Amino acid sequence: MTTIALPARNEIRNNAATVLAFAAGMIALPFVFGNGYYLNTLVFVAILALPALGLSLLSGLSGQLAISHGAFFALGAYGSSILAVRLGIDPAISTILAQFIVAAIAAAIGAVVLRLRSHYLAIATLSFAIIVELLIEEWSSVTGGMQGMIGIPPYEIAGMSLTSDKAVYLVYWPITILMLWFALNLSVSRVGRALRAIREGEPIVDSLGIRAANYKIGVYVVSSVFAGLGGSLYAHFVGFVTPATGSLMFAIDIIMVLALGGFDRLWGALVGVALITLLNEYALGFADYKRIFLGVALIAVMLVFPRGLLPGIIDLVGSGLRKGGADARRA
Amino acid sequence: MLAARDLGKSFGGLTALHNVSFDVVKGQIKAVIGPNGAGKTTLFNLIAGTLRPSAGTITLDGKTISGLSASAIGASGIARTFQQPQVFRSLSVAENVMLGGHRFNKAGFIACGLGLSFTRREEEDLHATASKWLDFVGLAEFSSRTASELSLGQQRYVEIARAMATGAKVILMDEPAAGLDDTETRQLGDLVRQIRATGVTVLIIDHHMDFIMSIADSILVLNFGEWLAEGTPEEIVGSETVINAYLGSVEDA
């Protein structure tokens, strides 16, 4: 019998190697460059990468966009904060509990919305995002209302509080990289294959005895937990949450990140988050005008590069190189 | 093994299928023929669970499958190929066939995300199964090609390999010879006989009478959504009702 190389196996190995190299680089960074404000910025990159990776997993595999990643970021942030502040639960445990809450809510939404074979996910999750935002603003006895919550405790590891940027950096980045590795593995696995197939023809997947709806719900739950985890990490780093944490605008920012880094590539999501965070931090000091600028940029990107800016540029450069190569051979 | 009793399907006021009963014997190739609009594809959609019958029941090995979801019917041992080949175009040929055997493996989101070693063993076994069926249909060399690169005829064979990989007891084939020339049709006939030789039952719709006559063990004739005749190819060819209703109309055309 003919034997054929099994791509998924090699891909998992390549993923592990690339991710390890990346992890080594990120962990070495503060020891090479020393402490500095840049570590604080990079902590935010690690945090914001989580909802972006989650959304990238969803859009890259199932081809759907959700507007609920801001809401789940908020649920992760508020959930863990409320458990830690009001009930005195250890932040690490409250973070894990908050993810179960996020997963349960995402599963409930998914079970209702994703059984329908259509593109209602974006609209249904938009309504959910609005509900969560209102709930956070109005349920002030628990959430602190418009004032938000302060005094959210940092994580503690072996009796040491994670308060310095460097300590947080050295804990958060490994977490984010582990989640990236998880997402990469998932996308080359049988689950990823089933989701890519569902994207092309859900009825055919069903006809093969596979419950397509369960996979769609599953990836939505996993994707939402990425956002929820980001929210929890955020709350225990900055120490306060307000209704602006994970607002609808935040959800749209995350979509913008994917428009930049590519809708179907996980590394692209990471690059997109890094670029947007750095732009915010160092270049775009013009506050409210920024949104107009980014909004127009988003529309332009979507028109020219529907798969995302970076993949579009890579394709352009790639075809340019191939063309150049062909010209060179002819010459 | 596969049996339909008093099967009916109407779309609003339009009756697509009315009071159709038949049996398919295990290990046989059974053909469903009839003029356009006779309800053949509707019958397949009812068996596969894409549509739910308005009346009647379908049983597989004595168990009622009508009314189950399409995925439950797929898992019960019925696979199909489509008039227009429905491969997953952006996936590789091997991946297409691996999806046929997908339901036998267990690894879920967490095991796959963690890359646990049993998930890799599962994948290797599944890949071996896929390779076996790609060999069976003669497409082994195309395994790592993207499915959309293959010709429509080849895509049809990918569908067949995928259906075999589901471990189906019955395969429904909707006009598999459409668009094939004589040589290709003969090759397809050989393949369908090979499928039967593995113990899988085949239910096949086609318009090529020569093709049907050469491979079918039994033929069911539908006309305007109703049972018209059933029997061996010889009986069908000799039946006056069939000649009047169907074969005659083809000659008129």
- Give the CATH class of chain A: Mainly Alpha
What do we call the CATH topology of chain A?
ABC transporter involved in vitamin B12 uptake, BtuC
Uncertain segments of chain A: 1-5
Let me know the CATH homologous superfamily of the largest domain in chain B. P-loop containing nucleotide triphosphate hydrolases
CATH architecture of the largest domain in chain B: 3-Layer(aba) Sandwich
What can you tell me about this protein's structure?
The complex is a heterodimer of chains A (331) and B (253). By secondary structure, chain A is an all-alpha fold. Chain A has one domain: ABC transporter involved in vitamin B12 uptake, BtuC, CATH 1.10.3470. Chain A is 78% helix and 1% strand. Chain A has a two-stranded antiparallel ribbon. In chain A, α2 packs antiparallel against α9 and α4 packs antiparallel against α9. Chain B has 253 residues and is an alpha/beta fold. Chain B folds into two domains: 163 residues, Rossmann fold, CATH 3.40.50; 80 residues, no CATH class. The model of chain B has no long low-confidence stretch (mean pLDDT 92). The interface between A and B is large, with 39 and 51 residues. Chain B: Keywords: ATP-binding, Nucleotide-binding, Transport. Chain B: Pfam families: ABC_tran, BCA_ABC_TP_C. Chain B: This is ABC transporter ATP-binding protein.
